[in-house]
Amino acid sequence: MRRKDREITDFEEICSLVERCQVVHLAMADGETPYVVPLSFGWVAEDGRLTLYFHSACEGRKLDILHRNPQVCFEMDCAFYVRRDETPCRWGAAFASVIGTGAVEILTDPAEKKKGLDALMAHYGWAGEAAYDEGTLARTCVCKVTARTLTGKRRR
């Protein structure tokens, strides 16, 4: 990272940012063409590693790409606002962001799928234990990305 003064290296601080983010942008490589999708997500921090979960239908462009190439980059941001000034060249933006890389694992075990969906529901405020209809669970694709690299950045 070029601006080391803005880099966030503390894992707990990065997790605090992840908690505040509402959308993750998942970048994939569709051959020579980049493809990015915004997703709702859940997350778990264990043993100093961040794991993201997302869900989708079991077919479509995103899954076609991930079956061919599971390597992804993800980005999420929060606390964005424009910093105004009397001079255009002094305008800027304040923000906090997290970027990481990893490989998508498409989950097949119902218990693992439930764990991912539980993380997603908890991230958006569900309290308590969630029950999932077996048929719906079978028709839902749940994916997991354990971050291989992870960095945070903040500009105040």
Radius of gyration: 17 Å
| Termini separation | 17 Å
Number of helices: 4
Percent strand equals over 45%
**Spatial shape:** globular
Oligomer: single chain
Give the biggest sheet: 9 strands, antiparallel
**Strands, total number:** 9
H and E order? EHEEEEHEEHHEE
Helical content stands at 10-25%
* Helix/strand class: alpha+beta
Can you describe this structure?
With 156 residues, the protein is of the alpha+beta class. Helices cover 24% and strands 46% of the residues. The chain is built from four helices and nine strands; from the N terminus they run E-H-E-E-E-E-H-E-E-H-H-E-E. Strands 1, 2, 3, 4, 5, 6, 7, 8 and 9 form a nine-stranded antiparallel beta sheet that branches. A hairpin with a 2-residue loop joins strand 2 and strand 3. It is globular and about 60 Å long. It starts with 6 loop residues before the first strand and ends with a strand.
Question: Main attributes?
Answer:
156 residues; alpha+beta; 4 helices; 9 strands; 46% strand
Short overview:
The protein is α+β, with helices and mostly antiparallel strands.
